[in-house]
Write a structure and sequence with these properties.
Layout: H1 2-40, H2 59-63, E1 71-74, H3 80-88, E2 94-97, H4 104-107, H5 115-122, E3 126-131, E4 137-141, H6 142-151, E5 160-162, E6 202-207, E7 212-216, E8 223-230, E9 232-238, H7 244-247, H8 250-253, H9 260-272, E10 282-287, E11 290-294, E12 299-304, E13 308-315, H10 321-331, H11 333-346, H12 348-356, H13 367-400
Parallel strand pairs: 1-2
Antiparallel strand pairs: 2-11, 3-4, 5-6, 6-13, 7-12, 8-11, 8-13, 9-10, 9-12
Helix pairs in contact: 10-11, 11-12, 11-13
Length: 401
């Protein structure tokens, strides 16, 4: 019997060790999730993430049917040249079908690009699911995030919106082999400055039901395409020139937690009231296998009606170059200096346009001079700020002496 007890002891020790390990992993998951939530939305407590009980709603019934007042085309029916004339030049959004048909991400989506499939391949990789108050990335391990998606009942869940997944050296870079650039958007002029210098432009989106993107205009006047691999999304778009005060009403802006679902459920009806027909928003639902084209300057907000996986990319084409260049001059001045040098040799036609837009457009100032002037002004303002700070510090020290 003593020998039997000795034989059992290692088994009991192993079982105890396994239980302790499971407890440790559970505590790690819970703590990582709490930390991510606190960082991503410091304006509310973690216990308040489900305070409105939006998880109990049938979103389709709560929102009602969309107008679906957007043109839908199939890529086999419209050439890239025709697309420019029909949609790019008039800055007209549209839905495109058929672009994903040959993507491994879509054809093999249930195994490769499902939440579980991505977890099996990259479970230990940390991906961006938000930003903290200082603009730093909030990240979660993918296996933790997938578990969160399965369990969550939050009003506006965390949303993976990762721009680094395709960067050199990242373990997720093989994902780039699973999709290809749609032919309508093959031209991307920012690529001329190189991957390391260009602004963030490509994102993988893993969105739980009820997550979304709040009302915004894409940066630097860029246009965008967004392709859904699985799930459904609800979109609302307002035409360029719509006042910010209209699309972002005060009642919504006054809230500490301005999330997309709140805008859709509680504020959109009031936003639409009294709008003239030429300012009527575009409403639509899009599903797996579809791609939306969003021209630069359009306000838009998106809500995930189901757990969704998507890829999106911002770009600058010849058509949109004048607007993008003007925004880049002030928004990305140093990058614009490099961009201008490349354009001079590779795209002299666009270099000429950049020159025509310099200064007041009268030809008295070159694009190079305008960029140098902006850099110089900012440097001088920075030096003045430092000087004032030193003066205050010296004055404080003198008063103590």
């Amino acid at each position: 019997r003593a020998q039997q007890d000795k034989a059992r002891a290692p088994e009991e020790d192993e079982s105890s060790s396994s239980d302790e390990s499971s407890v440790d992993l559970e505590e790690e998951y819970r703590e990582k999730l709490r930390k991510a939530k606190r960082a991503a939305r410091s304006e509310i407590k973690v216990s308040e993430w489900g305070q409105y009980n939006f998880a109990s709603l049938d979103l389709d019934k709560a929102l009602g049917p969309p107008a679906n007042n957007i043109e839908r085309i199939h890529c086999k029916d419209v050439s890239p040249e025709e697309f420019v004339q029909r949609f790019e030049l008039p800055a007209k959004p549209c839905i495109i079908r058929g672009l994903l048909d040959e993507w491994p991400a879509y054809k093999e989506g249930k195994s490769k690009w499902s939440f579980q499939g991505l977890q099996d391949r990259f479970g230990d990789v940390r991906l961006k699911c938000g930003e903290d108050d200082d603009g730093y990335k909030v990240k979660l391990r993918l296996d933790h995030f997938v578990r969160y998606v399965e369990e969550q009942k939050d009003d506006a869940p965390l949303y993976i919106f990762d721009a680094d997944f395709g960067d050199e050296g990242k373990p997720t870079i093989p994902l780039l082999d699973d999709f290809s650039m749609p032919p309508y958007f093959a031209e991307d002029l920012y690529s001329l400055v190189g991957e390391k210098r260009r602004p963030p432009y490509r994102w993988m989106l893993l969105g739980p039901k009820r997550s979304g993107s709040s009302m915004h205009i894409d940066p630097l006047a860029t246009s965008a395409w967004n392709s859904i691999i699985s799930g459904r999304k609800r979109w609302v778009l307002f035409p360029p020139g719509m006042p910010k005060s209209v699309v972002k009403p005060k009642a919504w802006m006054d809230k500490p937690d301005r999330e997309a679902i709140d805008w859709f459920l509680l504020h959109y009806k009031d936003v639409k009231k009294g709008l003239p027909s030429h300012e009527e928003p575009i409403e639509l639902e899009m599903g797996a296998g579809e791609t939306i084209y969003v021209p630069g300057g359009w306000w838009h907000t998106v809500l995930n009606l189901e757990d969704s996986v998507a890829v999106t990319q911002n770009f600058c084409s010849t058509t949109s170059f004048p607007a993008v260049w003007q925004d880049s001059v002030t928004g990305r001045t140093k990058l614009s200096r490099s961009w201008l040098k490349v354009l001079q040799t590779t795209r002299p036609d666009l270099y000429t346009i950049a020159q025509s837009l310099a200064g007041s457009g009268d030809g008295r100032t070159t694009a190079e001079e305008e960029l140098d002037s902006i850099v110089k002004d900012r440097r001088e303002k920075k030096e003045k700020k430092k000087a004032k700070k030193r003066a205050r510090k010296d004055a404080k020290k003198s008063s103590r002496d």
